[in-house]
Design brief:
This protein has about 230 residues and is an all-alpha fold. The chain has one domain: Methane Monooxygenase Hydroxylase, Chain G, domain 1. The chain has 7 helices and no strands. The longest helix has about 35 residues. The two termini are about 20 Å apart.
């Protein structure tokens, strides 16, 4: 993280907990990749790997929160240091929820497989949205590591692309169900799966908002884009 603190030990503690957050981010990114692979290949085995990783994600969230509480209690940070610790906690929570969404995708894949639905389901059309969402999360983690507000602002704008992909997919899915009513149940699984992908983008957006909060000291959640741009610039 930028800026040196008066306490070298404090610097070390911040670096260690930040590294743990990046490790959690890497694990969650792996979950997303595997979940989408399970969908594209209709692989129950890979889907199971995603849900099994959920336990580790949850444990890491608890470990990071415990360390943050310890740092705050011992160091009593002020101003930007405290904002940073709060942002790390919020980011950790969002990463854990991304892991939840990946596990949800995996469970939906198993449901589709168990339903015996044909591979003609338009699952591959979710690839664009899933690539956007995972790319946005990766960009958010990189920006958080550097406290890069310019990239954070870009992320907030790019989240709209995922929303548009989701809306387009929903329209296609409705048409698909109307053409073949027998596929309504597995198609609804795909709909919930698409929503999970959209939520991954939302969590990346949340992380970007915390970056701006740390650096600029202003909570820009729910603020219009014009105001956010003004704060960043």
């Amino acid at each position: 993280m930028p800026e040196k603190h008066l306490s070298t030990q404090f610097d070390s503690e911040l670096s260690a907990v930040s590294t743990r957050v990046m490790e959690l981010g890497g694990l969650v990114e792996s979950q997303i990749r595997n979940a989408i692979y399970a969908l594209s290949q209709f692989s129950a085995e890979v889907a199971n790997q995603v849900t099994e990783a959920e336990t580790r994600v949850n444990a890491m969230e608890v470990e990071i929160d415990r360390e943050l509480s310890s740092i705050i209690g011992r160091r009593q940070p002020t101003a930007r240091d405290l904002r940073l610790l709060i942002a790390i906690s919020k980011t950790t929570a969002n990463l854990e929820r991304v892991g939840d969404e990946a596990a949800k995708i995996a469970r939906m894949v198993r449901s589709i497989i168990n339903s015996g639905a044909p591979r003609s389901l338009p699952s591959l059309e979710l690839r664009v949205a899933s690539d956007l969402a995972s790319g946005l999360l990766r960009k958010a983690l990189d920006a958080f590591a550097r406290l890069d507000t310019a990239t954070a602002l870009t992320i907030l704008k790019e989240d709209d692309l995922i929303d548009k992909e989701f809306d387009g997919f929903v329209r296609k899915l409705v048409t698909y169900m109307m053409e073949d009513p027998r596929m309504i149940s597995p198609s609804l699984d795909l709909l919930f799966l698409a929503k999970a992908i959209e939520r991954i983008g939302d969590h990346a957006k949340n992380i970007a908002e915390f970056i701006i909060y740390v650096v600029k000291g202003e909570d820009i959640r729910h603020a219009p884009m014009e105001q956010i741009e003004s704060v960043v610039k």
